[in-house]
Amino acid sequence: MAGRPGPAAILPLEDIRIDHAGAKVRVAGCLVSYDEATSLGLLSHKQATLLVDLTACLQDLRLVDKPMLMLIGDLERFENELPESLHIVEDRVAPPIEDLLLCVHLVKRCDGLDMQVWDEAARMESRARWEHLTAVERT
Q1: For residue 70, what are the CA distances in angstroms to 8, 51, 120, 123, 134?
Q2: Example GO molecular function term (predicted)?
Q3: Which end of the chain has fewer CB atoms surrounding its CB within 10 Å, N or C?
Q4: Element (H or E) spanning 8, and its range?
Q5: For residues 13 and 126, what is the distance between their CA atoms, to the nearest angstrom?
Q6: Are the beta carbons of 46 and 13 closer than 8 angstroms?
Q7: Are 35 and 85 in contact (CB under 8 A)?
Q8: pLDDT in tens, 66-89
Q9: Would you give the distance in Å from CA 89 to the centre of its chain?
Q10: CATH top-level class for 9-138?
């Protein structure tokens, strides 16, 4: 699956909102649940969980032991029911961000990733990109 052209916005999972639908994003988190029949999974970090479709990149991935993953994909609206096997059973995992699905086209396992540093860097990059875009619009 080819994604949208151009760079992906780097976002912490906690910062993703429904109005990001249609955007190409890079996110990171722990794959806490996976359904082999549908290739759907739940990527989670802190108080956010995102439904992800890993169909396009399964050949590159071993899904054991709740791996830490960095994903690039396109956010799309998702209005279907979650597969029963994806329902969250752990109290510490937040429910998925409502009505969003990340169609993943690139995945990288990153078990040693410091998620606090990732979140800070992602917010700094996003802020810098926004400031650059608004400065260009003003000229």
Answers
A1: 12, 14, 15, 16, 28
A2: single-stranded DNA binding
A3: C
A4: none
A5: 13
A6: yes
A7: yes
A8: 789 999 999 999 988 888 877 666
A9: 20
A10: mainly beta
